[in-house]
Amino acid sequence: MRILSGIQPTGSIHIGNYLGAIKQWIDFQEKNECIFFIADLHSLTIPYKPEELQKNIFEAAIAHLAVGIDPQKSVFFVQSHIKEHTELCWLLNTVCPVGELQRMTQYKEKAKQFKGNVNTGLLVYPVLQAADILLYKTQGVPVGKDQVQHIELARTIARKFNQKFGKVFPEPKALLPKLGAKIMALNNPKQKMSKSLGPQSYVSLFEDSKEIKKKVMSAVTDTGKVIKYDPKRKPGVSNLLTIYSLFSNKSIKELEKKFKDKGYAQLKKSLTQLLIDSLDPFRRKRKELLTREVFVKETLKLSAKRAQPIASSTISETRAKMGLV
Ligand code: TYM
User: Contact at 8 Å (CB) between 279 and 247?
Assistant: First the structure.
């Protein structure tokens, strides 16, 4: 199966991104043809500092290599290095109804968050995402739950295009992890973990031990003392159990048993240690990669060269179907 996914270079990558998306990517790359990329063009749709963009792209690249994206097994590049993404976005704009874009939850949230800067890019964001996916005739897209609506739209766009111009694109499917598709914020377990909720909401992949301890120990929990997985009634403790389960490979049932007669403080203490131990190898690998800038940049360049022929071929096919020479 051809798998593709992307992530925006918008500062530190958190354990929500990792558990919802990247961890799956690492598993998929063993048995599938995988394409992963840093979605720098998408990140231009919210306020950013141009002088920091290249640093953030480099950091995102290092983060993925540090946690286990293997450029020998996967294609891993920077979106803007392949011009066909933007070209296909324009072509697909012509088949995507604007009403569909106005209905997108992420658009509505971002439009509210950045009231003074609702640019057209923010609205067209999901069409560029559809272009990313369809350019490589992708079948499976491993993402967190918040991205499912965008993948559904990519399916709609593919269907509309194929009906109008003849079949070019397969309809992609969103691939969600069984557990962890929506990791909740530590400081507000009713909302998803996200950078926009502030640093107390997340643990980043390279967070130091002191910060991990502070954030986990002050995570919002629920009334009552029983440690039970019940996302509706006990969102705080259920979120901690989910994170615990995914980093320890222990089932939720096992964890409920392990912490049965213990309080929240004990669960948090144990989770703190688990996170410190699990993230430590990532931190060490990142440190090493920071000194190998040339290698990292060459890796991205070489990978883009592997993606380019697929992108060129799909664009030629699309242009021909649409009557362009
Ligand atoms: P981004 O950078 O916002 O998110 C990257 C991935 O992390 C997942 N994610 C989460 N998963 C579980 N719990 C959370 N709290 C959480 N927060 C984020 C997201 O679902 C996502 O999978 N639009 C994409 C980037 C993109 C893309 C694509 C993805 C651009 N083109 C083509 C797939 C295919 C995004 O939101 O990235």
Answer: no
Percent of the chain with pLDDT over 70: 100
Q: Which residue, judged by its Cα, is nearest atom 4 of ligand 1? A: 7
Tokens of residue 274, six digits: 């688990």
Query: Which protein residue has the closest C-alpha to ligand 1 atom 20?
Result: 144
Task: Report phi then psi at 191, rounded to 5.
Answer: -120, 155
Confidence of residue 117 (pLDDT cuts 50, 70, 90): confident
**CA gap 294, 297 in Å, rounded:** 5
User: Under DSSP, is residue 5 helix (H, G, I), strand (E, B) or coil?
Assistant: strand
Contact indicator for 25, 142 with CB cutoff of 8 Å:
yes
Q: Let me know: does 241 contact 227? Beta carbons within 8 Å.
A: yes
H runs (alpha helix) in 185-292: 209-217, 235-248, 252-258, 264-290
Residue 325 has pLDDT above 90, yes or no: no
Mean pLDDT of the chain: 97
Q: Is position 195 annotated as part of the catalytic site? A: yes
Instruction: Quote the tokens at residue 1.
Output: 């199966």
The number of beta carbons lying within 10 Å of the beta carbon of residue 291 is: 7
Determine contact, residues 180/19, Cβ cutoff 8 Å: yes
Is the Cβ atom of 17 under 6 angstroms away from ligand 1?
yes
